[in-house]
# Entry
Amino acid sequence: MMYTHFSRWFRLGATAGWSSRAVVLSLVLMSSLVQAADPATTCETAKLKAAGKMADCLAKAEAKALLGKPSNPLICVTAFSKAFTKAEANAALAGGACPVMGDVKDVEALVDTCVDDWAATIAGTPPPPCAGTQFPASGQTTPYTADKNDGIAGAVAVPDDGTLEAGATLSYTDNGLTVTDNNTGLEWEKKTSLDSTTNFANLHDADNYYHWSGNGSQETIWDWIEDVNAEGGTGYAGHNDWRIPNIKELQSIADYSIPYPGPVVNPVFGPMVVASLYWSSTSHAYYPSDAWDVDFVNGNVTNNHKSNNLFVRAVRGGS
# Structure
Protein backbone atom coordinates (compact mmCIF):
# COMPACT_ATOMS: atom_id res chain seq x y z
CA MET A 1 0.00 0.00 0.00
CA MET A 2 2.80 2.43 0.92
CA TYR A 3 4.55 1.68 -2.38
CA THR A 4 1.34 2.53 -4.27
CA HIS A 5 1.01 5.87 -2.48
CA PHE A 6 4.66 6.75 -3.15
CA SER A 7 4.36 5.80 -6.84
CA ARG A 8 1.27 7.96 -7.22
CA TRP A 9 3.02 10.85 -5.46
CA PHE A 10 6.05 10.50 -7.72
CA ARG A 11 3.88 10.56 -10.87
CA LEU A 12 1.98 13.61 -9.64
CA GLY A 13 5.23 15.40 -8.89
CA ALA A 14 6.67 14.56 -12.26
CA THR A 15 3.49 15.72 -14.01
CA ALA A 16 3.65 19.00 -12.13
CA GLY A 17 7.19 19.53 -13.43
CA TRP A 18 8.99 19.04 -10.09
CA SER A 19 12.69 18.27 -10.20
CA SER A 20 13.76 14.74 -9.31
CA ARG A 21 15.47 16.11 -6.19
CA ALA A 22 12.26 17.75 -5.00
CA VAL A 23 10.36 14.52 -5.56
CA VAL A 24 12.94 12.52 -3.58
CA LEU A 25 12.86 15.02 -0.72
CA SER A 26 9.08 14.80 -0.66
CA LEU A 27 9.27 11.03 -0.43
CA VAL A 28 11.73 11.25 2.45
CA LEU A 29 9.44 13.64 4.32
CA MET A 30 6.44 11.39 3.75
CA SER A 31 8.41 8.39 4.95
CA SER A 32 9.36 10.16 8.19
CA LEU A 33 5.74 11.05 8.79
CA VAL A 34 4.49 7.53 8.09
CA GLN A 35 7.10 5.83 10.26
CA ALA A 36 7.23 7.63 13.60
CA ALA A 37 10.37 6.96 15.63
CA ASP A 38 10.05 4.76 18.71
CA PRO A 39 10.53 6.39 22.17
CA ALA A 40 14.09 5.12 22.53
CA THR A 41 15.17 6.54 19.16
CA THR A 42 13.36 9.82 19.81
CA CYS A 43 15.13 10.12 23.16
CA GLU A 44 18.51 9.26 21.65
CA THR A 45 17.99 11.90 18.97
CA ALA A 46 17.03 14.53 21.54
CA LYS A 47 20.07 13.74 23.67
CA LEU A 48 22.40 13.97 20.67
CA LYS A 49 20.99 17.37 19.79
CA ALA A 50 21.37 18.52 23.40
CA ALA A 51 24.99 17.35 23.51
CA GLY A 52 25.69 19.21 20.27
CA LYS A 53 24.12 22.40 21.60
CA MET A 54 26.12 22.14 24.81
CA ALA A 55 29.37 21.69 22.87
CA ASP A 56 28.56 24.72 20.72
CA CYS A 57 27.65 26.76 23.80
CA LEU A 58 30.83 25.79 25.67
CA ALA A 59 33.02 26.49 22.64
CA LYS A 60 31.55 30.00 22.38
CA ALA A 61 32.11 30.51 26.12
CA GLU A 62 35.77 29.44 25.69
CA ALA A 63 36.14 31.94 22.85
CA LYS A 64 34.67 34.76 24.95
CA ALA A 65 36.97 33.94 27.86
CA LEU A 66 39.96 33.93 25.50
CA LEU A 67 39.02 37.45 24.38
CA GLY A 68 38.61 38.60 27.97
CA LYS A 69 34.85 38.91 27.64
CA PRO A 70 32.37 37.75 30.31
CA SER A 71 31.31 34.14 29.82
CA ASN A 72 29.14 31.82 31.84
CA PRO A 73 29.56 28.15 30.87
CA LEU A 74 27.15 27.18 33.65
CA ILE A 75 24.31 28.31 31.36
CA CYS A 76 25.39 25.67 28.84
CA VAL A 77 25.40 22.92 31.46
CA THR A 78 22.03 23.94 32.91
CA ALA A 79 20.31 23.94 29.51
CA PHE A 80 21.89 20.59 28.66
CA SER A 81 20.74 19.03 31.93
CA LYS A 82 17.16 20.24 31.38
CA ALA A 83 17.14 18.85 27.84
CA PHE A 84 18.35 15.43 29.02
CA THR A 85 15.74 15.31 31.80
CA LYS A 86 13.01 16.29 29.34
CA ALA A 87 14.11 13.63 26.82
CA GLU A 88 13.89 10.88 29.44
CA ALA A 89 10.52 12.14 30.70
CA ASN A 90 9.10 12.22 27.16
CA ALA A 91 10.29 8.68 26.51
CA ALA A 92 8.55 7.50 29.68
CA LEU A 93 5.32 9.30 28.68
CA ALA A 94 5.46 7.53 25.33
CA GLY A 95 5.63 4.19 27.11
CA GLY A 96 9.32 3.58 26.48
CA ALA A 97 12.75 4.52 27.75
CA CYS A 98 16.01 5.98 26.50
CA PRO A 99 18.77 3.52 25.50
CA VAL A 100 20.58 4.72 28.65
CA MET A 101 18.81 6.38 31.55
CA GLY A 102 20.40 8.76 34.06
CA ASP A 103 23.53 9.38 32.00
CA VAL A 104 23.40 13.16 32.15
CA LYS A 105 26.52 13.57 34.32
CA ASP A 106 28.59 11.11 32.27
CA VAL A 107 27.72 12.73 28.94
CA GLU A 108 28.11 16.22 30.41
CA ALA A 109 31.64 15.39 31.55
CA LEU A 110 32.50 13.86 28.18
CA VAL A 111 31.27 16.88 26.20
CA ASP A 112 33.08 19.25 28.56
CA THR A 113 36.32 17.26 28.15
CA CYS A 114 35.98 17.18 24.37
CA VAL A 115 35.53 20.96 24.16
CA ASP A 116 38.58 21.43 26.40
CA ASP A 117 40.51 19.13 24.07
CA TRP A 118 39.41 21.09 20.99
CA ALA A 119 40.59 24.29 22.64
CA ALA A 120 43.91 22.67 23.59
CA THR A 121 44.45 21.42 20.05
CA ILE A 122 43.71 24.85 18.58
CA ALA A 123 46.12 26.38 21.10
CA GLY A 124 48.83 23.97 19.98
CA THR A 125 48.83 21.44 22.82
CA PRO A 126 48.01 17.86 21.73
CA PRO A 127 45.25 16.67 24.09
CA PRO A 128 44.22 13.18 25.18
CA PRO A 129 41.34 11.51 23.32
CA CYS A 130 38.13 13.16 24.51
CA ALA A 131 36.70 9.73 25.27
CA GLY A 132 39.19 9.62 28.12
CA THR A 133 42.76 8.59 28.69
CA GLN A 134 44.05 5.18 27.67
CA PHE A 135 46.05 2.90 29.92
CA PRO A 136 49.45 2.52 28.23
CA ALA A 137 51.02 -0.83 27.42
CA SER A 138 54.29 -1.82 29.06
CA GLY A 139 56.13 -1.64 25.76
CA GLN A 140 57.15 -5.29 25.89
CA THR A 141 56.47 -7.13 22.62
CA THR A 142 58.63 -10.25 23.05
CA PRO A 143 56.66 -13.33 24.20
CA TYR A 144 58.23 -15.48 26.93
CA THR A 145 57.46 -19.07 27.88
CA ALA A 146 56.96 -20.71 31.26
CA ASP A 147 57.36 -24.22 32.64
CA LYS A 148 53.86 -25.00 33.93
CA ASN A 149 52.42 -27.79 36.05
CA ASP A 150 50.93 -29.38 32.94
CA GLY A 151 52.74 -32.71 32.64
CA ILE A 152 54.74 -31.38 29.70
CA ALA A 153 58.52 -31.36 30.03
CA GLY A 154 59.94 -27.91 29.43
CA ALA A 155 58.56 -24.44 28.94
CA VAL A 156 55.45 -23.76 26.86
CA ALA A 157 53.84 -20.67 25.40
CA VAL A 158 51.74 -18.66 27.87
CA PRO A 159 49.56 -15.57 27.46
CA ASP A 160 52.18 -13.28 28.98
CA ASP A 161 52.58 -9.54 28.46
CA GLY A 162 54.67 -9.94 25.32
CA THR A 163 52.02 -12.20 23.81
CA LEU A 164 48.94 -10.12 24.67
CA GLU A 165 50.55 -6.65 24.56
CA ALA A 166 47.64 -5.36 26.63
CA GLY A 167 47.08 -1.62 26.79
CA ALA A 168 47.52 1.16 24.26
CA THR A 169 50.75 1.10 22.24
CA LEU A 170 53.25 3.60 23.61
CA SER A 171 52.94 6.78 21.56
CA TYR A 172 54.50 10.21 22.06
CA THR A 173 54.65 13.62 20.42
CA ASP A 174 57.88 15.61 20.60
CA ASN A 175 56.96 19.26 21.19
CA GLY A 176 60.56 20.45 21.36
CA LEU A 177 60.80 21.47 25.01
CA THR A 178 58.23 18.92 26.12
CA VAL A 179 56.93 15.46 25.26
CA THR A 180 53.21 14.58 25.18
CA ASP A 181 52.08 11.04 25.94
CA ASN A 182 49.36 10.50 23.33
CA ASN A 183 47.69 7.83 25.47
CA THR A 184 47.41 9.58 28.81
CA GLY A 185 47.53 13.15 27.52
CA LEU A 186 50.17 14.02 30.10
CA GLU A 187 52.80 16.53 29.00
CA TRP A 188 56.31 15.84 30.29
CA GLU A 189 59.30 18.09 30.77
CA LYS A 190 62.13 17.34 28.35
CA LYS A 191 65.59 17.79 29.79
CA THR A 192 67.56 20.30 27.73
CA SER A 193 71.12 19.65 28.87
CA LEU A 194 73.36 17.06 30.46
CA ASP A 195 76.38 18.81 31.92
CA SER A 196 77.69 17.70 35.30
CA THR A 197 79.99 20.73 35.46
CA THR A 198 77.10 23.22 35.54
CA ASN A 199 74.61 21.47 37.79
CA PHE A 200 71.68 23.62 38.95
CA ALA A 201 72.65 26.51 36.64
CA ASN A 202 69.98 25.18 34.28
CA LEU A 203 66.68 24.08 35.81
CA HIS A 204 66.36 21.37 33.15
CA ASP A 205 69.83 19.87 33.37
CA ALA A 206 69.34 16.11 33.51
CA ASP A 207 72.10 15.88 36.12
CA ASN A 208 70.21 17.95 38.69
CA TYR A 209 69.05 16.04 41.77
CA TYR A 210 67.12 17.14 44.85
CA HIS A 211 65.83 16.10 48.24
CA TRP A 212 62.13 15.25 48.57
CA SER A 213 62.23 16.97 51.98
CA GLY A 214 65.24 18.85 53.37
CA ASN A 215 66.32 20.44 56.63
CA GLY A 216 65.01 23.91 55.83
CA SER A 217 68.13 25.09 54.01
CA GLN A 218 68.34 22.47 51.24
CA GLU A 219 66.89 22.51 47.73
CA THR A 220 63.97 20.12 47.38
CA ILE A 221 61.84 19.00 44.44
CA TRP A 222 59.20 21.44 45.71
CA ASP A 223 61.57 24.40 45.49
CA TRP A 224 62.55 23.23 42.01
CA ILE A 225 58.95 22.91 40.73
CA GLU A 226 58.19 26.43 42.00
CA ASP A 227 61.13 27.73 39.97
CA VAL A 228 59.97 25.79 36.91
CA ASN A 229 56.51 27.35 37.16
CA ALA A 230 58.00 30.83 37.54
CA GLU A 231 60.56 30.42 34.77
CA GLY A 232 60.65 33.33 32.32
CA GLY A 233 57.66 34.90 34.01
CA THR A 234 55.25 32.48 32.31
CA GLY A 235 56.58 29.10 33.41
CA TYR A 236 58.52 26.49 31.50
CA ALA A 237 57.43 26.16 27.85
CA GLY A 238 54.79 28.80 28.54
CA HIS A 239 52.99 26.86 31.27
CA ASN A 240 52.88 27.44 35.02
CA ASP A 241 50.96 24.36 36.10
CA TRP A 242 53.86 21.91 36.20
CA ARG A 243 53.89 19.41 39.07
CA ILE A 244 55.75 16.38 40.41
CA PRO A 245 54.18 13.20 38.92
CA ASN A 246 52.58 10.62 41.18
CA ILE A 247 54.08 7.15 41.14
CA LYS A 248 51.62 5.67 38.63
CA GLU A 249 52.11 8.57 36.25
CA LEU A 250 55.88 8.29 36.52
CA GLN A 251 55.89 4.56 35.87
CA SER A 252 53.59 5.03 32.85
CA ILE A 253 56.50 6.32 30.73
CA ALA A 254 58.78 3.37 31.54
CA ASP A 255 59.35 1.26 28.42
CA TYR A 256 59.87 -2.36 29.49
CA SER A 257 61.07 -3.41 26.05
CA ILE A 258 64.40 -1.69 26.69
CA PRO A 259 66.99 -3.97 28.35
CA TYR A 260 69.45 -3.15 31.13
CA PRO A 261 71.15 -0.73 31.64
CA GLY A 262 68.43 1.49 30.21
CA PRO A 263 67.36 4.18 30.40
CA VAL A 264 63.99 2.45 30.08
CA VAL A 265 62.27 5.40 28.47
CA ASN A 266 61.34 6.15 24.85
CA PRO A 267 64.09 7.87 22.80
CA VAL A 268 61.67 10.76 22.15
CA PHE A 269 62.64 12.02 25.61
CA GLY A 270 66.02 12.75 24.08
CA PRO A 271 69.64 11.88 24.87
CA MET A 272 69.55 13.96 28.04
CA VAL A 273 68.17 11.16 30.21
CA VAL A 274 69.95 9.77 33.26
CA ALA A 275 69.29 6.09 33.91
CA SER A 276 68.69 6.42 37.62
CA LEU A 277 66.09 6.98 40.34
CA TYR A 278 63.41 9.67 39.87
CA TRP A 279 61.17 11.02 42.61
CA SER A 280 57.40 10.80 42.53
CA SER A 281 55.05 12.91 44.65
CA THR A 282 53.67 9.78 46.33
CA SER A 283 54.69 9.05 49.92
CA HIS A 284 55.05 5.55 51.34
CA ALA A 285 51.93 4.86 53.41
CA TYR A 286 53.69 2.54 55.88
CA TYR A 287 56.96 4.51 56.02
CA PRO A 288 55.85 8.15 55.55
CA SER A 289 59.46 9.27 55.88
CA ASP A 290 59.96 7.57 52.48
CA ALA A 291 58.52 8.38 49.05
CA TRP A 292 58.12 6.17 45.97
CA ASP A 293 60.44 6.46 42.99
CA VAL A 294 61.02 4.77 39.63
CA ASP A 295 64.44 3.42 38.70
CA PHE A 296 64.87 4.12 34.99
CA VAL A 297 67.80 1.71 34.84
CA ASN A 298 65.35 -1.19 34.80
CA GLY A 299 61.86 0.19 35.52
CA ASN A 300 61.78 -0.92 39.16
CA VAL A 301 59.47 0.91 41.55
CA THR A 302 61.27 1.42 44.85
CA ASN A 303 61.11 3.73 47.86
CA ASN A 304 63.73 6.08 49.27
CA HIS A 305 64.09 8.21 52.37
CA LYS A 306 62.91 11.73 51.61
CA SER A 307 66.25 13.17 52.67
CA ASN A 308 68.02 11.40 49.79
CA ASN A 309 68.97 13.13 46.54
CA LEU A 310 67.20 11.76 43.47
CA PHE A 311 66.46 13.06 39.97
CA VAL A 312 63.10 14.51 38.97
CA ARG A 313 60.97 15.15 35.88
CA ALA A 314 58.03 17.56 35.79
CA VAL A 315 54.62 16.78 34.32
CA ARG A 316 51.42 18.71 33.62
CA GLY A 317 47.90 17.81 32.58
CA GLY A 318 45.62 15.04 33.76
CA SER A 319 42.71 15.47 36.12
